[in-house]
Structure formats: C-alpha cells, structure tokens
Amino acid sequence: MKRRRLQTCVIGLVVLCSTTTVLLALALLSAASSPFDKAYAAQRGAHTVAAFDATQVSRGQLARTARQPGVAAAAGPFGQTVVDIPKDWLWMAGGTLTVVGRADPAGPVDRIELLAGHWATAPGEIVVNWPAQGSPGTDLLGTELEIPGNVTLTVVGFATSMSRSASAWVSPEQMTALHPASAQMLYRFTNSSTEAQLSTGLTRATAGLPEEALTGAQTYLTLKQAFSALADSYLPFMTFFGVLGLLVSALIVGNVVSGAVVSGYRHIGVLKALGFTPNQVVAVYLTMLSVPAVVGCVLGTLAGSALAGPILKVAFTGIEVGRATIGDVSLWPSVACLVGMPALVLLAALVPALRAHRLSAARAISAGGTPRTGHGLRVQRMLGATRLPRPVSLGLGQPFARPGRTLLTMAAIVLGVTTVTLSTGLTSTMVAYGNVGREGGGARIHVTTEVSGNDRTPSGLSDLEIEEHLRSLPGAEGVRARALSQANMTGQTEPVFADFYRGDDSAYEHTIVEGRAPAAAGEIVAGPAFLTQRGLTLGDRVTLGLNGRKITATVVGRLMEGDARALEADWASLTRLAPDAHATEYMVRLTPGADARAYTEAVAALDPDLRASVTDSGNAGTATVVTFSVVFTVVLALVASLGVFNTVLLNTRERRRDLGMLKAIGMTPRQVVVMTVTSVTGLGAVGGLLGIPLGIVAHRLVVDNVGVVDFPAYMKDVWHTPQLAAMFLAGVAIAVLGALVPARSAARTTIASVLHTE
User: Fold this and answer.
1) CA dihedral of 556, 561, 567, 568, whole degrees rounded to 10
2) How many other CB atoms are found less than 10 A from the CB of residue 294?
3) In whole angstroms, what is the distance from residue 349 CA to residue 346 CA?
4) Distance (Å, rounded) from C-alpha 57 to C-alpha 208?
5) 43 to each of 166, 490, 603, 732, how far by Cα in Å?
C-alpha cells in the first residue's frame, strides 16, 4: 500500500462512490415495501375488501364465506352505505363518503387504530378515517354532518385503517337506520402474494353466492402499489446507476490488481524465494486491496445513509396510507453494503491475483518488471510505416502490448459513456416533462375563490361571470374552469376524486398519450396509476356516484400522469351528477409576453374575493431526477477516468526504460504527453461508439418503467446528431482526463533517473 499510494487512493475512492450509489438504490427498494408490510401486518390488514349487494345475498350466506377453504380469517358482514358531504367538511373535497357500520375497531381482520376521541357506539356518532401521517388533534371533534332523512352525525373520533376499508364508521344500530344497500366482508387468505392468488381465494370464498351478489373488491396489493408508486418511479434509474457503479468498480479493481501483479514480478519472485507460499503471496495482494476497499466501503455507507433520508423524503412525499412510515426501513441495505462491497472487491481481485500464485520464483525474478510487448511492437512497426507523427503511431500501438488491461480499461470507458448517455437522455426527457402545460411561452395564472363552503362562489360574481371576466382581461389567451368532488365508484371502498373541467382544453394536447380528451357526459380520462390499480383500459365502463345520482362513464383516454385516486371528466358529466355545482378555481393561460403581474392585479381589482397567483415554473420530480442523474454521472465518469488513470500510470511505470531511451534520442516532453494521451484516445473513441447504444437502451428501459408517468413518444425520442456527437466525445474526454496527470508525470521524468542503472 505504501509503495502504491495513488492506486490505493483510487481503489478507496472507487469503492466509496459505488457503495454510496448502491446503498441509495437498496434503501429505496427497502423503503418501497418494508414499512407497508410491517404496518399492514400489525393491523391485520385485509387482503381483500369485498362489497356485496345486500338485496342479492343474506347476512347468513356472507358469514358462511368465512369458513370456505383458503380463508385464513374474516370479519363481517358490515352494513355499508354512501353519504354525501359538503365541500370543506373536515377540509375534504365535497362529494361522497363510504360509511361502514362496525361495533368496535378490533377484530380478526382490519384492526382499526383509534387516533383521537372514542369509537362510535351510540346513534348520531361517526368516526372518520384519517389516512395521513400525524395526529388530527381534538379541535375537529364535534363537527356535525347533516345527511338526508333529518339525520345528524357528530364526529366523535378519528381512526386509521391500513386496509382503507371505509372513509368513516358508525355503530351497527346507526347503520341500520341509514338503510344500507351494500354489505362488506374483510378477508385474509392463506395464499396472498399475487393478484391471481387473491382472485382465486375470493372466488372460492364466494362460491355458491348469487352471480351478481359481488359488486366490487379491493386488494391490499393495490394499496401497496399506491404507497410505493412515487418511490418506484425513482427506483429504475437509481438501480441502473447502482449496477453501473458495481461493474465499473469490479473492472477497475481487477485492472489495478492485474497491473500490480505484472509490475511486481520481481517482488513476487523475491517473496517466494524468501519462503512465502503461493497462498501467502496471493494474500499479500488481496490484503493490499482489502484495506482501502473496507475504508471506502465504510465511508460510502456513511455517505449513503446521510443522503438516504432526504432522498426518501422526496420519494415518499404525499403518502397517505395509514401508519406506514419510511422510518421503519430496516438496516439490511447498510449491512449488505458493508459485507457485499468488500467481498465483491476481493472476488474481482482474486482472478488476477491467482496469476501470482502460479508464477515460479525463478521465472518471476528473471521476468522483472519488463513487459512482454511482442504484439505491441509489431503493431507499432506497422503504424510507423504510415504518415502519422511518430508519437501518435507509438501511442496507438501501446494498447496492443497489454490486451487484457486494454479490454478492462475500455470496458470502464464504455460504462462511463453509457452513464453519460443515460443521464443526458433522462435530463432531456424530464425537461420536456417539466415543460408540459407551459407550451407557447405564456405564463399560467391560478385563480381561486376566497369564500369556502359547499361549492359557493363569491357573492359579487357568479361562476360563469368570473370565467367571462377572466377571459376578457388583457393578456388572457385561454381560461379553464375546474370543480373537484369526492365521488364514489361502484365496487370501490376507497374514495375517488373527480376533476371536472370546462373551457380551454389545450392542456390535453400534450398530456393525452392514448385515446382522446373527454368531450361529452359519461367520458373520463385518468393517469396510468389510476387505471393500473383498478384494472381499467380504454373502452371500459364504470359507475360514478355523486349527490345521490349515478352516471355510467367510459374511459376514453389515458393521461401522461395523474394521482392514483383521481380521474378527469368533462363539465357535462358534472351537470348530470350535480346540476347546481360551481367551479371554484380557474387556470388562465396568458399570451406569450403578457405581463403576469399586471394580470394578477387586474384579477384582484375585479373582485376582492378572487385570489390570483402565478403558477410555479418548477417541477419537484424533474429537479430530483435531473439532480440525481447529474451527481451519479459525475461520480461514475470520475470513477471511469480513475480507471484510465490507473492504466496509464501502470503503463508509464512499466515503460520507464523505453521512455528514457526515447528521450535520449530526441523525444520532447510534449511528444511524450502526446504519445501517452494517444495511447488511450483510441480506447475512448471506441468506448464512445459502444457506450452510446447501451445508454440509449438503458434510457428507454428506465422511462418505460416509471409507473406513475407514461411518457409520450416525443419525450422518449430525445436523441439528435449534436447529442450523439457529444456522447462520442464524452468517451474521448474520459480517456484524456484520466491520462493527463500520468502523462505529464512521465514527461517530467529525466533521462538520468531512468537510465542510471544501464
């Protein structure tokens, strides 16, 4: 280690960077599943929440389903109904609330955690589900809810259910008074790892019931997917960077050990002549690698652990699934890195170290440090016959002297170019994604009504008058009105948030990736997360309920992105469901160059109850991916350059005698630098040609596997001639940067210091 301080530092730095990258990927993978599984198991969450038509099946028939083969535990039947809630009731969007009648929060399945107040045991009491983290406090207790039939329910508690089996609970007596049309059963099955197993278990449990009795079912895998959806979107590209880091590390470590063995032939021979066994000689080189590897691994684990917290906080922003928290992530990623990375380094070093095991003492001592350069000399003679400058021809022939080392170095450059290409593609895709809705260059103004309540609008202006005035103000190019309601989808216990729009529909031009925008009543569009979690595709029909009315809707389009609980529909659908509903916010698209500040001031002068603000031009997801891509690219490109640095350093040390003789016959220091840099420039060019297609394939794999976003084709096809040329030059740049320092060191070597023993 003392004789090879630079190489020791290179190995330590490479392992540090790779460990950090791998730990972040493993931490994200662990956080995407472990917290949910632990919290779900603690509450005995239901594997399947099933809703039945109470007019088609009796309570006795449902109770018998709990004793069917494959059912490990069951709870119910519970009465279930849907009630209407006004806008801003407990800060919720107006719409519907799924209520279940349940005597207590305990039971064999779905043990509900009471957060505040007490359970609803008397008529007129209701407990509301609180899905977010933290405590709701007690100031909201006592809030009343009036529902049709002169029934008033008072909030007496807040609770949370990992199963999301209901939005609220009342006592069985109160549920009887509400005349429920549905009944709910909660099941845990013996086999529950996949959707197919859950479907089979439910089919067996409901065997013998009327064919149309089952109206809907929701599995825990849907909730788990919702919990980790955003984290899963970060996982593909972080996994790619982690794998690339591991490969680069293994290549460089193998290169370093191979070079150390070749350059240390005489040292190996002396060790064996002094009595070292072959295994002890191998142990010498493995120890030389293990110390910096362990130090780099420990420092990389500490760095990765420090970065994991902020990264996971971003990845799990907005999670609303019970008590699952990222604080429950296990320590196995850190342990895996602390054990696995040094093991990987030793494994990568073992193969070249075994070369020292096979060498005899006499052969090693006689070989000394002189490399066998027969192939390299022949190639240099062939290149010398060309019109290339002599330093260039000599440099181009050097890689052929050590073909194994050359291949390892080229592989490191290929992976470096692959990383740069992947990062460039991701950046271009995410920039295009972040610019959605800002086409044309005009600012976007968000206008809301100040008065809260059940879809009320300011007293001065009606809903349509507000839209007309906003459209008439100077600078307005388009106005889009929005109304949000919490609707009920038949067969689903989890609420559905429905956005209804009218007016400017240009937003759909860049956000619809398949199908078309909704244009009539009964047409909806949604993002990939919503459609995937509910098993919906274009053309499928669903039933939406709101304010006691129902409408059959058809999925006519798939959005580029969207909340897993939200869908979008045309204003005509809202008119069918809630004729008296009004828009409560508006998005104004200004003409390019229009003064956004002047427009907001004009809105404020229009009516004091209107609030206008310029929408933020940033995008958290775009910034996160771009930042991580740039950081990982710099790290891995640096690691690849260190691999080139090590190769050139070994080559110059092996060729010290040749360099001294070349200088003695007239080669200048500048020509030495040119020769040394040229020796790896060709590798950089070839590495660039090979790394570009690999990076393009990796980019497509990453963007095609982001579950929360379905990128359209124009965001994926980001490769153009200038970018590809830059990627090719990236390979050359990695090689040149890695070769400059040892090349300048070789140029400063004096003739006397090299040839004084000749």
Assistant:
1) -70
2) 16
3) 5
4) 10
5) 15, 26, 50, 57
Return the C-alpha torsion angle 105, 106, 111, 114, nearest 10: 40
Element containing residue 310 per DSSP (H, E)? helix 278-315
Gap between the terminal Cα atoms of the chain: 28
pTM above 0.70, yes or no: no
Q: What's the CA gap between 583 and 421, in Å, rounded?
A: 46
Under-50 pLDDT residues of the chain: 317-321, 323, 328, 368-371, 373, 451-459
CA 664 to chain centre: 58
List residues bridging with 153 in a β-sheet. Answer: 145
> How, if at all, do strands 182-189 and 144-147 pair?
unpaired
Separation of alpha carbons 88 and 86, rounded Å: 6
Are β-strands 168-170 and 95-101 bridged in parallel, bridged antiparallel, or unpaired?
parallel
Cα–Cα dist 463/153, whole Å: 31
pLDDT of residue 238: 67
CB atoms within 10 A of CB 308: 23
DSSP 490-511: TT--S-EEEEEEEE--GGGGTT
Cβ-based burial of 276 (10 A; exposed 0-12, middle 13-18, buried ≥19): middle
Phi, psi of 138 (to 5 degrees): -110, -5
Q: Residues 6 or more apart from 253 whose CB is under 8 A from it?
A: 11, 14, 15, 289, 293, 345, 348, 349
In the chain, the amino acid numbered 645 is: F
The per-residue pLDDT for range 410-468, each reduced to its tens digit, is 888 888 888 888 888 888 887 787 777 666 667 888 888 754 444 444 446 788 888 88
DSSP string, 650-716: HHHHHTHHHHHHHHHTT--HHHHHHHHHHHHHHHHHHHHHHHHHHHHHHHHHHHTT-TTB---HHHH
Helix (H) or strand (E) holding 636: helix 620-654
Contact between residue 473 and residue 603 where contact means Cβ atoms under 8 Å apart: yes
- Pick the closest to residue 745 from 656, 625, 641, 615 (CA basis): 656
Per-residue b or e along 337-365, where b marks 16 or more CB atoms closer than 10 Å to that residue's CB: bbeebbebbbebbbebbebbbebebeebb
Is-contact 512 437, C-beta < 8 A?
no
Instruction: With both helix axes pointing from N to C terminus, report the angle between 669-703 and 403-434 in degrees, rounded to the nearest 10.
Output: 50
Radius of gyration of the chain (CA): 34
Q: Give the sign of the dihedral formed by CA 563, CA 429, CA 738, CA 349.
A: positive
Cβ contact 7:260 at 8 Å: yes
Listed residue (101, 239, 236, 253) closest to 177, CA to CA: 101
d(Cα 333, Cα 346) in Å, to the nearest integer? 20
Asked if 336 and 232 count as a contact pair (C-beta separation under 8 A), the reply is: no
pLDDT value of position 189:
94
Q: Identify which of 217, 226, 239 has the alpha carbon closest to the alpha carbon of residue 80.
A: 217
Q: What is the structure's pLDDT at 171? A: 94
CB atoms within 10 A of CB 375: 14
CB atoms within 10 A of CB 563: 16
